[in-house]
Every structure is written in C-alpha cells, then in structure tokens.
Amino acid sequence: xxxxxxxxxxxxxxxxxxxxxxxxxxxxxxxxxxxxxxxxxxxxxxxxxxxxxxxxxxxxxxxxxxxxxxxxxxxxxxxxxxxxxxxxxxxxxxxxxxxxxxxxxxxxxxxxxxxxxxxxxxxxxxxxxxxxxxxxxxxxxxxxxxxxxxxxxxxxxxxxxxxxxxxxxxxxxxxxxxxxxxxxxxxxxxxxxxxxxxxxxxxxxxxxxxxxxxxxxxxxxxxxxxxxxxxxxxxxxxxxxxxxxxxxxxxxxxxxxxxxxxxxxxxxxxxxxxxxxxxxxxxxxxxxxxxxxxxxxxxxxxxxxxxxxxxxxxxxxxxxxxxxxxxxxxxxxxxxxxxxxxxxxxxxxxxxxxxxxxxxxxxxxxxxxxxxxxxxxxxxxxxxxxxxxxx
Length: 391
Ligand SMILES: *Cc1c(COP(=O)(O)O)cnc(C)c1O
Fold this sequence. Notes:
By secondary structure, the chain is an alpha/beta fold. Helix content is 36%, strand content 15%. The protein contains twelve helices and twelve strands. It has helices at residues 12-18, 45-49, 63-76, 87-98, 113-125, 167-176, 189-192, 226-238, 245-277, 296-302, 319-327, 374-388; strands at 80-84, 104-108, 129-133, 149-155, 180-184, 202-206, 220-224, 282-286, 309-314, 333-334, 344-347, 364-368. It has a seven-stranded mixed beta sheet, with helices on both faces. Strands 8-9-12-11-10 form a five-stranded mixed beta sheet, with helices on one face. The longest helix has 33 residues, at 245-277. Bound molecules: pyridoxal-5'-phosphate. Pyridoxal-5'-phosphate binds at residues 86-88, 112, 155, 159, 184, 186, 206, 208-209, 218, 220, 337.
C-alpha cells in the first residue's frame, strides 16, 4: 500500500505527510478509506490456503489498519506496530506478551495509575510479581534485578509529576541481563523521543492523547523491535485484539498534523510554565524544559522537545481556595485525558500510587496547554490566582 516504508531517513513531518497513503496508481484519492470489514472474500479455495493472500479476515488487518501501522512503524523505526482500542490495552497486551507465571517485573513508581492497577490485578493473579522502582534510579536498577526478572517498564517523564528517567542507563543495565525493556512514550511521542533508537524493545502510546489529538477517539499503539515483534503479534492475535475502523481512521488523520500541533503545544506550554515560575503562589513548576527542573539535563540530552502537559506545586493553601481557583477557570476544562486541542486542568491525587519514591507533598495542579493563544490562558490563570487569594 505505502510506497514509503524503505526510506528510514525522512523527517517526522515528511513521514506523517506521505506514509500510509494509497498508491496513486490504484486510486486518485489522497486518503486511505475507512474499510469496514469482518468477512473477506477469497477468489477460490486455493486462495484460503495461500500464505501470500494479503487480507483474510477483518480482525487480522484491513487497508485502514495497515495504513495506520505503516505510518507508526516508520515514525518509530519499528519492525512492526499494533493498535489497540485504548492506551491501557496497549500497556496490558504488551506486558502479557513478554511475561509468564513466575516472572518478575520492574515498574517505575511514576507509572500511569491504571498501569499499576493492571500489575496489582491481572499480573499478580497470574503469578507475576511487580517491584516498583524510583523513576530516578538510573544505572542502580541493576541492584533490583533478580534471577527471574524478565522486563523493565519505564514512563518518562511521569505523567503526573514529570520525573525524567535516565533511559540509556536503565536500558544498558537491562540489556546486560537480557531483560525486555518497555516504555510508555505517550508524553513525548516519537516526534520528541525515539524509544527504539535508544535500544528499547517496546514503545507504547496512548494514541488517545496526541495521535488522535482532538479528544474524540481512543486508541493505543504498540511499536516493537524485531526482538519482540513475533511474541507481541502472537499475543495480540490470541487475545482477539483489533480496533474499530473509524477510530483507526481518526488516529491516522490525527497523525498527519501531530508534529505541527506538538510544536505549538511545546511553545505555548513553555510560555505558560515560565509565567507560572514567576508567581509567588507557585512553589515549583514541574516541566523538564525549564532549566530549573531537576530533569532538565537529561531531557535536553535525550528529547527533541516537550509536549503540552506539565504541572506546578502551589504553596500550601486551603483546598476550598484551590477549588475556587480551578472551578472558575474559563478556558481550562476540568477533565482527565489530554493531548487534544483544548486546555485542561486537574488537581493531582498521588494517594496510594507512590511506594518507592518521594512524591510532592504540596498541592499539585496539572495543566494540559492546548492550542489557544497562551496570552488568553495566562489571563485565565491570573484571574484564578485572584480567586486563590480569596479575591
Ligand atoms: C491516558 C494514558 C494511558 C491510557 O490511555 P487510554 O487511551 O486512556 O486507555 C496510558 N499512559 C499514559 C501516560 C496516559 O496518559
């Protein structure tokens, strides 16, 4: 379908514009259509047994799924990519693909909350033990590796408190012991951080966020290095995974503009973060692109940019005042998820999800800076600080 896969050296903007498009010799239309399929008809009985037959059944792949995974594989530099009905399904399928009963998993303490619940629920029930590690552990992860340790899971930066992990150090320690490495790369996307180029075996994204980019669909992505591709594909198939054609199409459409949107999210979020840093009500801004952030040096070394999601700690203040500040915001919606065109705000709750590392004790407000004019967002937050003060 795509003519473009062999060239791995194109920039991300060019990849998302040209990859996963139909061959103009087949159709004059720019876009791959939404193919709705369960049954695929064969020419004759022999074709049902021919391993070269391209499409066999809806769940096994369609031109729509193939266009989406072609773009993702080229962006990620992956041997193969699979899409799931949500980001959390990408996490669970990837972990189930590489772990077996009796195995031990090393999981970052900064992981997305439901990822942790999956470890404590399904994985525990099937006899996989999880140890949570300090996200800032770096090369010292070697000290936590046991004879039965099978995999190391990273998320950098953490999507609530934004610790930047020393991925090269962790990957080197894991590789020395033959472990599989996985990362939840939802925040940076392959536009700003390329996990497979850093030696990671499996790069996951909640495509729900920046891939879709418009808060109107849910999807997950699992990009695999050659080392794990067969195992992940097998588990994905055995679990009956597939994704609805409209959602796959929305993800493909979102990818076309993802680098352009991310550049604006990056710039606007940094503008807002710098403004927050000057506010007396703010104790600390948690944004790795700020030179004051403890993760800044590693971020600068490993990442090509930052997205629109970051947080700040308030000076200790009564909860009602924080509620007055947040409830009155006009441009920031109160809601989970992020990565859409619109700005969002949440009050971070770390209760029960930190066991191996220190978490902020002051109130943490998380912002997703959308595509509005940052001056308008700053004015909205400025009015919020007046309410915080009781004005
Ligand atoms: C949202 C999110 C997920 C889960 O994605 P869903 O599509 O909501 O299931 C996983 N990891 C991170 C970091 C997320 O922010």
